[in-house]
Each structure stands twice: as structure tokens, then as C-alpha cells.
Amino acid sequence: MSTPEANPKRLSFWISRGVTILLALSLLAAFIPQPASAKYDPDDCAYTYEVRRGATLTSIARAYGTQPKQIVYINEMDPPYTIYVGQRLCIPEKDKKDLSKLASKYANAAAVYFTAGRSGNDIIIYTYNYPKTTVQIKGENAGASGWKLVDIGTINIARIGNRQVLRFRLPPELRVKKLLICLKSKKSGYLQCVTPRTGG
Fold first, then answer.
1. Containing H/E element for 63?
2. Beta strands in the chain (DSSP E)
3. Checking DSSP bridges between strand 88-91 and strand 134-143, what pairing results, if any?
4. Residues 189 and 140 in one domain
5. pLDDT at residue 32 tops 80
6. pLDDT (tens digit per residue) in 143-153
7. What's the rounded Cα separation, in Å, for the pair 37 and 124?
8. Cα(116)–Cα(16) distance, integer angstroms
9. Within a domain: residue 86?
């Protein structure tokens, strides 16, 4: 007794149907908010906020005296920066509460994660609340060719930590009066700049 051969068209139909259902289920799962483990180090947070219904990044930032982009950065959020009820967010410090005397001498209140100062041909960097990552120090000089970022050095904050005064020699092309000092995260590309104050 011979068994009937499988109908290739019918088999192809059911395989196609199964693949379509699996794709639909995976897409649906992608839109369901999943609680994520915190990417940040709790030591970097001044506060931890649990998202409530109706909250936005703007309203949270305003309540804690910071900016939405600072919350996005320290929490390593990806576009479109969606938050959901019950999510725990790290809120960075809004001011420099732990500057050493040397850092205070050069302090510039423009930055959230660091301050910079200048002493002769040296630049002084003090990170007080920077996420534990590696950052590139860059300078900008308004020269004949316009503003251009120039490498000054690198700080591995994950290794050395915050709250340290670091001194770097300025390259010759940055030994000018008009200067901007920036820290750029190697991981995310986040760039923050300050105008250094000249100290004694």
C-alpha cells in the first residue's frame, strides 16, 4: 500500500503561514515595554526617580534642576528616548558640591559633569559627576580656518574615578585667548564643552 505524496503547494502554504505568524509575534513583543536592568552606576546618581504616569523627560528634568539630555546621557538611553511607568532613572547632580580648593579656583559653572580651568599653557580638568566611561579631551580654537576640535588627551573615568584634578599641556595651536574645552564620550559620542577660566 503506497502512501500519498505530500502536496508541495499545500506544504509551502503552511510554511509561509507559520513564518508570517512568528514574525507578527516577534514584532508585537518588541512593542511591549520590558523592565531593563539599570545601565548606570548608582554612585553616579544624586537621586533615583521612578517614572510615574504622565511624567516626561522634560518634567522630570525641571523637577530636579537638570536637563533632559543629561538624564538621557547618564541613563544611556537610545533614541527615541522612551520612558515607561515604573522605570527607574538615574538623576545627575545639578551642581558641584564636592569641588576641591584647586578645582574651585578654576571652576566654571557651565558644565554638568566637569569643570575646566587654565593656568598658563596647561588646562586643568576636574570631573565631579561624570559617568564611568572613557572621555577624550578636546579643545576648540577660533583660528583662520574656523573652529576646529584638537585632541588634548584622554581620561579613563571608569579606572580612576571622579573628583580628581588632572592637568594637561595645551598643544601649541590651542595656546590662544579664545578657547573652549570639551569632553567627548568615546562610547556614546556625547560632547559637552566649557570656556575655561584662567587661574593663577
1. helix 57-63
2. 47-50, 88-91, 114-119, 122-127, 134-143, 146-156, 164-169, 179-185, 191-194, 197-198
3. unpaired
4. yes
5. no
6. 555 667 889 99
7. 35
8. 61
9. yes
**Candidate ranges 2-11, 34-43, 68-77, 120-129; pick with highest mean pLDDT:** 120-129
CA dihedral 49, 50, 51, 52 (to 10 degrees): -120
Phi-psi region of 85 (alpha: psi -120 to 50; beta: other; left: phi over 0): beta
Which residue is listed with cell 558641584?
96
Domain count, the chain: 2
Burial of residue 114, with CB atoms counted within 10 A of its CB: 0-12 exposed, 13-18 middle, 19 or more buried: buried
State the residue for C-alpha cell 576648540: 140
**Does residue 194 lie in a domain region?**
yes
Domain limits at 65?
42-91
132 confidence band (pLDDT: 50, 70, 90): confident
Does residue 152 lie in a domain region?
Answer: yes
Query: Are residues 133 and 160 located together in one domain of the fold?
Result: yes
